[in-house]
Amino acid sequence: MLSESTLSDLRASLEQEQSDLRARLTEMGLLSGGELSFDQNFADSSQVTAERGEVEALAGNLRDSLIDVEAALAKLDNGTFGNCELCGQPIPPARLEAKPAARLCMDCASKR
Ligand SMILES: [Zn+2]
């Protein structure tokens, strides 16, 4: 069971990560009005293919991280934070401290 102080530390680092990711996506023009506009923007992009591939890969990573971080924040709000999404077992606190947005316990993550 995670203590209140651990949970508030994790929430703080998730919120920090969320704002960093949002800032980077906004810089790349992929976030408008707080919403991800990934697909639409890339469809309209006129960048050369090679460059675009790199940007897409980076943007994809940032977007996936943001989705994970926002899912973790939502779980903090609804009280399901810290449970593995596959097996439902609690994720060890050490793992959450290393990666607050972790969705899976070590066992499930290693099976993927
Ligand atoms: Zn699991």
Counting DSSP H or I runs of 4 or more residues, the number of helices is 5
Please trace the helix and strand order, writing H or E for each element: HEEHHHH
Reported for the largest beta sheet, the result is: 2 strands, antiparallel
Helix coverage percent of residues?
A: 55-70%
Into which percentage range does the β-strand content fall?
under 5%
Low-confidence regions: none
Question: Mind telling me the C-alpha Rg?
Answer: 16 Å
What strand line-up does the widest sheet have? 1-2
Bound molecules: zinc ion
Gross geometry: globular
Derived structural class: mainly alpha
Report on the architecture of this protein.
This protein has one domain (4-82). It is 65% helix and 4% strand. The protein has helices at residues 4-27, 38-44, 49-78, 93-98, 106-111, and strands spanning 31-32, 35-36. The chain binds zinc ion. The site of zinc ion has 8 residues, from helix 5.
Which short descriptors sum up this protein?
112 residues; mainly alpha; two-stranded antiparallel sheet; 5 helices; globular; binds zinc ion
Walk me through the topology:
Elements: H1 4-27, E1 31-32, E2 35-36, H2 38-44, H3 49-78, H4 93-98, H5 106-111
Antiparallel strand pairs: 1-2
This protein binds zinc ion (ZN).
